[in-house]
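=== Structure Prediction Worksheet ===
Name of assembly: unnamed complex
Input type: mixed (protein and possibly other molecules)
Chain count: three
Listed entries:
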Amino acid sequence: MSVPKKFRLEDTIHVKGKIEVEKYVYTPGVAGLKLAEALIDGRMLGIRCGDKILVPAKLYCPDFTQGEIVEVKDPWIVEAYTVIYEDMYGRRLEKPQIIALVRPENSLGGIIHYVKTDIEKIRLGLRVKPVFKPREERRGLITDIEYFEQLE
Amino acid sequence: MRSIRLPGMYLREEDLRKLVGVIEYTPRARYSYSAGQALSEFLRGLREGRILGRLCPSCNRVLVPPRVYCEHCYTQTTEWVEVPGTGRVESVVVSYIGTARERLEKPEIIAVIRLDAPGYGRDSFDFAGLFHKLCGVTEDDVKSGRVIGLRVKPRWKPLELRTGSILDIECFEPEVVESERA
Amino acid sequence: MRPNIYVKDKVAIVGAGLTLFRRRLLETPRELAWEASKQALDSAGLTLKDIDCIVIGSAPDAFDGVHFKGEYLADGSGGFGKPTVRVFVGGGTGVMIPIAAWWHVASGLCKTVLAVGEEKMSHAYPHPQGVFAYIWDPILERPLGPNLIWIFALEMARYMHVCKASKEDIALVSVKNKRNALDHPAAQAAANITVDDVLKSEVLVWPVQLLDISPVSDGAVALVVASEKIARRVTDTPVWIDGVGFTLDNTHWYNRDLSYPRYLEYAARMAYKMAGIERPWKEIDVAEPYDPFDYKELHHIEGLMLARRCEAPKLLREGYFDRSGELPTSPSGGLLGVGNPIAAAGVMKVAELFWQLRYEAGARQVKKPVHKAVANAWGDLMQAGTVIVLST
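=== Predicted Assembly ===
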């Protein structure tokens, strides 16, 4: 590289900059809109493709045919889980939290969400059910489900 | 293509606000860009009131803005060459809007300037150039087309205000033509 | 017609489909890609099982606001368990998508390819202009507070000066394209306007005015590309891809003459040589030059060697480029009339030529018989030129 003899790394000038977008506003999509309305109602939707049910509901099946949107019910099974101690920005959490991949019992796919139970009790195959926020607080987002808890 | 109804559901801004399930997010990415070897030296040169270019040994062009390689010949450039900073206006426009499309209070005149530098023909396709504002011309001058081809020189900020950035040149202004003096 | 290059399999386009182009659509990017893909597959009479490979094209992630956008779109484009690739050359992506599909089939690697271009610009709020802001070099250009329209205005001013073209001449392109778009079912900005309307519209950066610019849009377009054997089985009139060309110029856009698109000439020569075309201005029947701004269409017509340098405005005035003229350009309505979702727009132009060459364009069909066509797209800071030559 043609580096002049007296050039040092400390001589490099840095210019500051940042992204200029005020914010992003993501539309839910045609299927997502139905899902949002169902969440406000306290229900969860999946899509039937052939003889399988896939969660969460999308507009189309993986083989590109149109599926049928159906409701999915409890119980849900914990497929995988992890315990986190820090948040998205690296700050320590007050209490460790459990994040799990949960799916309804007779379906494929699943969603990621919090599971509220003691750390000793969490295990694969645990049967759980969603606990929704009070109706007036629901906005049609996945966070309308506050957490999943163990099914007794 | 037959006239079938195409898919796609149109949303107006008001519809978007009434929709459920809309997510909003503001990104928080900040950057510290490195100017690299050539531009760091160029910026230092600007602080000293000089415009620096780099010489390509293969095609003998002096490249402004300087870079450590010549992209036409794909070779390393070898030495720093100071250029006088005078030049000719290649193209010029009047801007009424800013970065985020807001209306500006005062319109700005922006130009691409073909600098006097060795290694190029008078009207060659490639040239050593800079992109900057123009002072000393009015909007009407620009719109009449008289400004393209005008000879210009840089107007520097006072020494204590220079920080080592392209803004150390306040703008380019018309050169006083020799033939106008007696 | 044999291409002047050894290919394992001749390549043809056999199907095309698109969604509406609008300022804001409800669908998520994946759903848009799926809708367009489904239309394309249906028009070719194929299903996803018949497709071997997928090519996705989408411009900066920053518009949709989702990183890794190609992979994000993958399941909406059928990229589920199939070889999938994403191409990106800014606005040039639109024609790079069928070019990449051509690579896959011509090399013999895949027999059928689904090529999808999608863009959702409405996610960036309040206006995607903010995202355009960081195409600039952060050291030497951003401190001046530039707006992307400045570059286009500088190019337009230079073109007007060198070719002695007036704003009225250039505004005719906008009038022509928006009128052509009235017949396009997906069009967003079709209108019956006059040169006066263009000249009275808001001046953004003189000489560029509001009606000189194409609108910001959401949309998706898909093509099905197949090898010769499959193409002949699926349809009676496959549209052959005879030549492809793509080039990049340097990023120092203020170090070169802005009145002529050199990058486009190099790409066009590459494509014409491959297609065996020696006199494009005589042999090409219909063209879709990229027209995000009205002067850009004239620029690109000259770069594609369909007219001599600076001759395009005169020919335009004479009606040479109208749908009923000698060499119709942008019969679809182009980006000015139909809309500009960055990556999908170029694919929309190729789809239009696909329908024109098969005489399926309905009210938009040009008057003269058509056999050879060319489309181009252009991207980044006046850099990337992509060209494709089609024929029947």
